[in-house]
């Protein structure tokens, strides 16, 4: 173990001192011994560690572990914050290099003040050269709120990227995050803030939209990392919203040593199996719940074929508890007549969205329930839950195309999903 002695309040040039095994470096700062720990970042698809997030740990002269923020607080009081940050990076680089790894990334968290320092990139490149690491092996984690909206900040990020570093936007989803910032900074990786995970764990509707958020980031050109995963439920949420990378105590905690390549394979395989079972169970439950609507829709379509009116054909369908409305489309996707509603079941929500309730002549030609029904007539199709424009609430639409005396028509029923989802 080598040690660098620092004389507060200002840093002195590193003075290595030989230690026990010669493979690890620590830093003395005041009464604290500061050292590196590395938490692996795993690729869900590759089932192995693809990088390590470096962070600082400290112990006092009695060997007691102390929160690293105490060290940074002391450095801030002494005006040493930037210097401590740079020396911490040097410490992480040296210790990471001792892993003798050829491929993994090193994730470094950057202080906003360091990013705005014009000499930062050159200093970091020099440190990398000293230890023999190319910048392509380093992911610089930029706090989502850092730099505000300044053009200068975007230019600095772009310069670091051109030097070979990968850029990760850290903490996306906290406070005033917005997708515009992702588009502006163009990071390689976006790390979702833990608050998103917490809310998804507590609210099923937030868990339901997470895959869409991840998909939006993917389509914008970013890989997605979800950290802070400490339970199986956390990890399952991450897998089911299709993130690329995972990190957290559930997989492996911070350590001074690298993990074995196969460290998380068993956990990830078990999670994949659990996820498949969850999805299958969810589909079985939903199929059972929707079965009465499918059967009633088939009966209604048969009555339409026999020449009955929409109101008469859907009488049984309208009696089912979660039926929101029935409606009929022509072969071009235009609605024939208005919606047929259950008797005396108007909600307060419907009253609030009254301008959207009447749909005669509306065009639904781009809706999946119309497209899929036309693709294979005489068969019921079910959509995934989506936001209905009629009352701005979640619904599932069942549809079937049938040849009636009035030509090819598509019969549809909207099924309230807000209520059914609460019963899961």
Automatic annotation (TrEMBL):
Q: Which residues form a coiled coil?
A: none
Q: Which CDD domains match?
A: EAL
InterPro entries listed in its UniProt record: Cyclic-di-GMP_PDE-like, EAL_dom, EAL_sf, Sensor-like_sf
Q: Which SMART domains does the UniProt entry name for this protein?
A: EAL
Record-linked Gene3D superfamilies: EAL domain, PAS domain
Every copy of the EAL domain together lies at 16-268
Q: Which GO terms describe its molecular function?
A: cyclic-guanylate-specific phosphodiesterase activity
Name the Pfam families for this protein.
Answer: EAL (PF00563)
**Domain of life of the native organism:** Bacteria
Protein name (Swiss-Prot/TrEMBL): Diguanylate phosphodiesterase
Species per Swiss-Prot/TrEMBL record: Caballeronia udeis
């Amino acid at each position: 173990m080598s040690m660098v002695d620092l004389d507060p309040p200002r840093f002195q040039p590193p003075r290595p001192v030989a230690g026990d095994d010669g493979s690890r470096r620590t830093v003395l700062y005041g009464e604290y011994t500061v050292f590196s720990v590395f938490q692996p970042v795993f690729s869900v698809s590759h089932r192995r560690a693809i990088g390590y997030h470096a962070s600082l740990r400290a112990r006092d002269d009695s060997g007691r572990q102390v929160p690293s923020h105490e060290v940074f607080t002391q450095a801030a009081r002494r005006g040493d914050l930037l210097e401590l940050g740079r020396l911490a990076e040097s410490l992480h680089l040296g210790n990471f290099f001792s892993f003798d790894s050829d491929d993994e990334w090193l994730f470094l968290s950057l202080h906003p003040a360091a990013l705005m320092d014009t000499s930062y990139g050159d200093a970091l490149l020099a440190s990398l050269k000293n230890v023999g690491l190319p910048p392509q092996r380093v992911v610089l984690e930029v706090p989502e709120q850092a730099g505000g909206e300044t053009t200068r900040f975007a230019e600095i990020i772009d310069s670091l990227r051109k030097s070979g570093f990968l850029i990760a936007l850290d903490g996306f989803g906290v406070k005033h995050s917005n997708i515009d910032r992702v588009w502006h900074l163009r990071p390689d990786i976006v790390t979702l803030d833990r608050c998103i995970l917490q809310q998804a764990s507590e609210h099923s509707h937030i868990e339901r939209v997470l895959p869409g958020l991840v998909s939006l980031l993917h389509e914008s050109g970013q890989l997605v990392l979800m950290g802070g995963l400490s339970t199986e439920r956390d990890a399952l949420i991450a897998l089911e919203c299709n993130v690329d990378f995972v990190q957290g105590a559930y997989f492996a905690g911070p350590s001074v040593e690298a993990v074995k390549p196969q460290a998380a394979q068993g956990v990830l395989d078990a999670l994949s199996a659990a996820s498949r079972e969850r999805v299958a169970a969810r589909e079985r439950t939903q199929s059972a719940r929707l079965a009465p609507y499918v059967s009633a829709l088939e009966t209604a379509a048969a009555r339409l074929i026999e020449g009955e009116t929409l109101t008469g054909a859907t009488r049984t369908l309208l009696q089912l508890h979660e039926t929101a409305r029935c409606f009929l489309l022509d072969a071009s996707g235009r609605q024939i007549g208005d919606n047929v509603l259950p008797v005396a079941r108007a909600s307060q929500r419907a009253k609030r969205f009254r301008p959207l309730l009447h749909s005669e002549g509306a065009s639904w030609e781009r809706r999946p329930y119309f497209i899929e029904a036309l693709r294979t007539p005489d068969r019921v199709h079910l959509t995934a839950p989506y936001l209905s424009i009629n009352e701005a609430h979640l619904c599932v639409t069942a549809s079937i195309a049938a040849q009636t005396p009035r030509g090819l028509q598509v019969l549809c029923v909207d099924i309230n999903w807000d209520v059914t989802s609460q019963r899961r």
